[in-house]
Amino acid sequence: MKVAIQGELGSNSHMAAVEMLGNGNRLEIIACTVSAQVLAKVVGGEVDGAVLPIENSLHGSVAEHYDLLLELPVRIERESLLRIRHNVIGMPGVKLTDVSKVMSHPVALSQCRRFLAAHPELEVVPFYDTAGSVKHLMEAGLRDVAGIAPELAAREYGGEIVVLGVEDHAENYTRFHLLRREDAAGGEAVEGADKMSLAFAIEHRPGTLVAALERLARAGINLTKIESRPVPGSPWEYVFYVDLRFDSAEKAETALEALREHCRMVKVLGRYRAA
To answer: Would residue 127 show up in a list of annotated catalytic residues for this protein?
Structure first.
C-alpha cells in the first residue's frame, strides 16, 4: 500500500501512518512537500491513500485540511490519536552544550516554549518540517545544530537524541485521518462505524445555524466538534464542519436527512470508527 504524507520520513505523520497501517514491507510512505500535493496524489491515483493531521490538542485545527476535504473527491476512512513527543536531536556524540541553534517546524517550536525559554543561549530557527530539520543537519554534518523532532527521525537519519521529551505538556495529541479517494473500494461502509464528519452550508439569515444544530439534537446525535471556515468570495458566510457520534446507522441517516432539508449544501466527509 502506498500512502502519502506531508513532511519527511520520520515525521509524526509517518509515525501515524505506521500506527494505523503497520510497518510491514507492504507499506510504502511517499513524502510530499505540501498537503495539496499529498491529496493530488490520492485523487490522481498515484497512491492508495494519505495520512494527514486534522487537529492537535494544544495547537488546534489544521484549517487547510478542512478546506481540502471539502474541495476534493476524498473521504475519511479511519482516524487515530498520536501522542506527540518532541526531542532535541543532533549528530551522534553531540551534547546540548555543543548546540548553538535549534530548528523545527513552527508548530513544534510553539509546543516547546518552556524548554526554549530555559535555554536562551539557543538560536531558534523555524524550518519546514520536524523530521526535515534532522535530515538537513545530518546531511550537512552540522554539529552545532539540533532539530526538534520525533524519535523516529533520529532512527531514520542516524541522529542521536540529545534531550528527550521537551514538549510543554504531556497531554499533547494529534488526531490524524486516513484519506482515500471517494470511489475507492469500501465506500462509506466501514464496519462498526460510530462517527461521521460532515460539512454543511446554511442560508445567510438569522437563526439558521441554531435550527440546523437543533435538527441534529432531535435525531439523537452527539455533536463532538464544530469548526467554521469562510466561503471564498462570500464575506461573512461560512461552511461548518462537524464531527458526530452515533450508536446506530439509522440515527446517522436521520441526522443527514434532517440537515439536507434545512441546508443548501451537505457533504459527508467520512464515516469511520472513533479512535
So the answer is: no
Known catalytic residue at 176: yes
Q: Please spell the DSSP secondary structure of 198-260, one letter per residue.
A: EEEE--SSTTHHHHHHHHHHHTT-EEEEEEEEEETTEEEEEEEEEEEE-SSHHHHHHHHHHHH
DSSP 87-116: EEEESTT--GGG--EEEE-HHHHHTTHHHH
CA neighbor of 130 nearest in space, from 38, 14, 30: 14
**262-264-267-271 Cα dihedral, nearest 10 degrees:** 0
**In whole angstroms, what is the distance from residue 258 CA to residue 273 CA?**
22
- Which of these is catalytic: 176, 200, 246, 254? 176
Q: Which residues contact 104 (CB under 8 A, 6 or more apart)?
A: 86, 112, 126, 127, 130, 133, 147, 148, 149
pLDDT value for 25: 67
Cell numbers at residue 7, please? 513532511
CA-to-CA distance for 238 and 157, rounded, in angstroms?
Answer: 43
Catalytic residue selected from 174, 200, 246, 254: 174
Q: Contact 47/2 with Cβ under 8 angstroms?
A: yes
Helix (H, G, I), strand (E, B) or coil at 6: strand
pLDDT at 133: 98
- Residue 190: its pLDDT value, please? 76
Question: What are the pLDDT digits (tens) for 131-141?
Answer: 999 999 999 99
What are 175-227's pLDDT values in tens digits? Answer: 999 999 998 876 555 788 999 999 999 887 888 899 899 988 888 899 999 99
Q: Report pLDDT for 206.
A: 84
